[in-house]
Each structure stands twice: as C-alpha cells, then as structure tokens.
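Predict both folds.
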Amino acid sequence: MSTPTASVEVLIIGAGVIGNSIAYHVAQQRRSVLVVERRELVVEPAASWASAGGVRLWEQDPAEAALAHSALARWPTLAEELDADLQYRQGGHLLVAENEVEANHLQTVVQHQHALGFVDVSLVDRQEVFRLVPGLGEQVTTAIFSPTSGHADPRLTTHAFATAAKRHGARYWTTTECFALERVADRITGAQTSRGLVRAEQIVLTAGAWSQELAGTAGLQVPLRMRVLQVLLSSPAPRGILTPVVSAVGRALSLKQRADGALVLGGGWLGDPSPDGCSYRLRAASQQGNWATACELFPVVRTLQCVGAWGGLQAHTPDDLPFIGSFSGLAGLTLAFGSWYGFALAPAVGSVVANHLAGQPTPQLNLLSPDRIAHFDPSQVAAFLSASVENSSDTL
C-alpha cells in the first residue's frame, strides 16, 4: 500500500459553492476536512463563477422541496453567519404571463407550490405587476410573486463559505488535480492527487460537470452531460429600476439588477463546451436571443448595451435532479452535484450532507439518492448521453 501524503476524516473534491458549503458545515462539527480543487477558487468556467446568482426556490421539484425550504430560511441571515458581504437582496421573484394561456398556467403553478408548502407564492393582478416593476412591457397580463426569493453574488458567496470553513479548521489544496478515487472492495478509501495519495474516512465528490470521469475511476457509471449556460451583463441602468428578479412563463429569461445598476440576464441559453471539457464557446444566436427577449419583456434594456458575456460548465443529469447522497453497498463516498438550483440550495445542501456524513438521518435526500440511477431506462440514458446539447432540456 502506498504511504499517504495526508489522512483526513473528510475529503471534499471540488471547491464550488456546494463543496465549500459542505466543508464549512463539516468543519463546524469539528471534523478534519481537506478540500481539493484543481484550479484556484471560483475561476472561469466553473458554475459557481458563472452563476447568475438567483435565490429562486419556489419552483422546485418535490424531490428538492425540503432543501429549498431549509435554504430559504438560511439566506436572510447567511451574510451575518459567514461574516461576509454576499450582496444578498431579498427583492422577491416575479414570474409573468403575457397571454391567457400563460395566465392559466400560473394558477396551476401556484396550486402546486402551495402543495409543497411555499405558501408565500401568490397570484398578482396587472396593476400590482406594474407597481412592482413599472417598466415591464405592456403585454404583461398577470404574474406570480414570491417575496422571499432574491439573489446574491455567487463569487462572493463561494469565497465566503471557503473562508468560513478555513476559520473552523478546514484545509484547502488549490491548483491540485485529483486523478482517481481509490477503491478497496466495497469502500472508497482515498484519492490520488497531484500532491500524492490522500486517505479519508469519507469522500465527497462535488466536482460538478467533471464528476463523471472521477466516479468512473472507481467503477461507477454516473450519467452526466456537460452543458454551458450563458449569462449576459448590461451597462448600468438607473439604480432601483428592478427590485425583484423577473422571469416569464413563455420566455427563456431571468433578469435581475446588481447593486451597481447593471442588469444580469440569464434564462438557460446555451453555449458549447470545448472537446476537452475545460472551456467553452458562446453562441452568437444565444447572446442575440437572450438580449432580444429581455428587450421585449423589459423595454428599458433597449437603452443599454451588453458589456459582458460568459458561460459556466454545469452537470446535467437525465432527470434534471441532482445526485446527493451515497450508493447503497458502497461505503466512504457521497455525491453532491447536478442541481439546476445549486447556488440557491447551497446552504441547505452543505448542512444536510454534513449530517449525512455524520450518520444522522437525512430524509431530505431520499429522492435524490444516486441509487435511482439503477432504475433509469438504459436506452433513454444512452440517448441522453449521446444527444446534442441542443436538446439538453430533455429528461427521462
């Protein structure tokens, strides 16, 4: 057996917002933690660097609802807890309809969210919509409003979790490649890194879009597809012109205003990953489409310029739900990646995964366990993995 370079209780592979949140919560439990990150913290093109920063938790799938409730309760006091400026603004979220069919859909959405316990979600009429956001296009007819949603700066938040984790004793190895997981029979015992072998009682794989390859080194087939999500940045608009985050039933769009006045445009517009999976190329059509749909919904955008565009590499699972938890029959390994709402859920995921590692009951993870992979239809998984990224919204 090789002599390990380091031995820890918990090894976390990947220092995005999820990995750092887990490190923070595990370190709070006074367990020894080592975080290995192949680059510096929070750099392009990682998802935590590129995220638009939405804390929009009330459109959750039932499988993520418990985590969403927990995260929603944490965000208002998270800056104080982490002793850092996260630029968190709880301005609410407005989901608008522009015709009768979309308005009817909103009624169904409200009923569904109330059934999940998100009771603050309510329908608002046209007059209230324009009171909340006076500059919206005249075609808007009604909306749903959630006052407890908001947004924060993803880069500041990711760094804040890491800094807090270090204060509690977590160690970080940045610019350190993880080559392979070490498996002995039915246990993952460590990982081989560019600084040598690390032995660990438990390993958390939270390397986002790069997790599939590492899982494969331990003989695990985890179906993931890498997708590039685009974000645009406008020149500054008058401050306070947009308080809530705005999105639309019939548009691929999220729109929010930063403290400096700039508007951040998202909505799921796609780019293309490089062949080696380490970079990306934005699509001109995505940039033009994202900007045009924002202009149509919020005409003030027409007076602004697009001054920035970037993308982030995100892990996409076949059923659009994250893999969070452990495989039955395989000790020592926990997965935590693949959520569309990963940034928003990060405070809750960190806490729950720390409790999972400590052997405590975590019913919040029951429907997110990687064990469900065994129940996926193999032919559909094969089609998902081989499909063009153009179809990346397809699910099982």
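Second protein follows, with its predicted structure tokens after the sequence.
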Amino acid sequence: MPRKLSPGEKISVLIPGIGAGSLGLEIGKALRRAGGYRLIGTDIAETAFGLYGKEGFDDTYLVRSSPPQQYAEQLLDIALRDKVDAVAPGAEAVHRILAEKREMFERLGILVMLNTREVIGTCADKSAVSAYLRECNIAVPDTRNVTSGRDVEGFASYPCVVKPDSMSGGSNLVFIAEDQQEAVFLVRYLRKRGYNSTLQQYINCLREFTVGVLSAPTGEVLGSVAMERLLDNKLSYKLRYGDRVISSGWSQGRIDNFPEVRAQAERIATALNSKWAMNIQGRLNEDGVFLPFDINPRHSGTTYLRALAGFNEPHLLLQHCFNHAHPPIDAPRSGYYLRGFDEKFVSDEDMKTHG
C-alpha cells in the first residue's frame, strides 16, 4: 500500500522513458502542471530529450540498457535512493517490464502506475478482447489474429487493417489490405520479419476518437475524456491514400463532451474491469456507434493535452491513491488541442554528463 503522506508533502514520482515524444514526457508535463510533485526521470539513451534542459524534472538519470530483471533493479535502486512514492512507465518497453516486475516495487510500498495484470493480459490479445466485448454486447470491428497466409482464408471484412499483434510489437508496421490477396501478402511480409499479425475490419468513417477512461483501483469509473482526432494534418496520420487513413500516435484534435462516445468507452472499461487509466481508440460506424479498434490499458500520448483541458489523469489518480482525495472533475474545456515539436541545443560537455 502507498505510504501515508504528511500534510503538504510532495509525492515523488519516477518516470522511466523520457525520450522525445514519449509518454513519459507527457506524464511529467501533466504532473508539473498540477504542482505538488517531485519528478525524477530516467532513460537508456544518452540523447533522450528529457535528460537535458528544463523539462520539469528535479533529477534525471541515464540507466543501462539491460535484461528486464537488471533493468528493473536499476529503477528500484533509484526509487529507494530518491525515496520515490510511485513509478509511472513512460515507454512501451518499460510498461511491459514493470507489468512483470511490479511486485519488486509494491512490496516496498512503491505504487506502480499500471492497470492490473489481468487487464493488461486481456488487452494484449486483440482477437480475444474483441470476442469478449462482443459477448458483452459491445459492438466491435471484425478482428482475427493470424500466424500465416493460410489463416487469412474465411476473413471477409475488407478493406482491413493488417498490423503486428500486440504481443509481437512493431506498431509502426500498419497497412491496409483491400482484399484477401493483399492481406495474405502483408501477413507473409510481417511473418518474414518475425511478427504475427492481426486483421481488423477497416471502419470507413473519418470520425475517429481517442478516449481516456479513468478508473480507481477499486474499479469505480472516476471519469472520462474524449478527443475527436484531426486526420488532415501531416503529423496526425501514418498512412493515407484515397479515402483511407490510418492515424499516427501524434493525436491532436477537438476535446468536447461527446457523451455517447464517452459512455460507450466507459462501458468497455467497466466490462474489462479496468483499474487505472485506459485509452480507447475507435471510430463511429454508419449508425453512429463508437467501435473500438485499439484498447491500451495505460496512460495515453494525449495525457498532457487532456490536462490542458482540465482532465489531468495521473494527478487525479495519484491524489486518489495517496491523499484519498477526489478532486472535482469538471466538464473539459472545449476546443482544439494542437501540438508540434520543440527543439533544443545540448553541448558536448552537457552530453558527457549523461554519457
């Protein structure tokens, strides 16, 4: 259990994975905006953007790239030395490691800011989670996990998205197949590169949303926030031709109430028994129903944009866990939330301090 804090005491949060564009930087910016936190950042790359300059971290450390056990031990050493209260994984690889090694931290009273092992395991298999939600009478796109070109036979929902399954990684290798012949080719292409594939019905509607659902460790839904993505900006899509678009991880767009979308996302989080942050991406079908195509049981790359809108997810959860506080969750500030790139100079001398 997290330790009890003294009145006015800052919560110390370790954020491993603070490279450019990382979830770690998003969480760090959100907590810095809220105030009342001591932030420690780490990364395995000496050129990681967050290691240098005034990114809001009180301390930063370069850690060695090493096997999961040794990597977790490095983080634990830093956490104990800096009297850390919570660890927020800021990269997908760190998320996977801490999901397996969380007991190392939690038995010492350090909160690991992750969903439960069960939820993470369920969401790792896209075909299985799709089948489960269908059993719960929640509409989902047709989805199938495949390991070879022969497994494509019988899949009839074209066009479809072909991508590595969640357990294979390689999220940048995402394609659209217009028919079975293209799907077989793409599955074989990914297999040759070491990935199993997921086929998923392409939802031919450009009203796409990313939705955050916040649930307490007890499972109670604390609130949700929805952004309708802009898909006409070069930063916002990774694949585009004709009327087909695959969005990128650089979400930007309009945050508003969107009650029907949020209600459906909350139904999904409740059905999956989420007990932390969950990010659900989906599109509206021809009947205006929100269909999820990607469910990640973690904080989102839009964490800071949501904080700007007044829905600061890591702050709300940490206050709930450490101070048993329930800050009021007001309707988000409606409007467009845009993003770009920041640049910085790092001298040779400064680089050597982390190298």
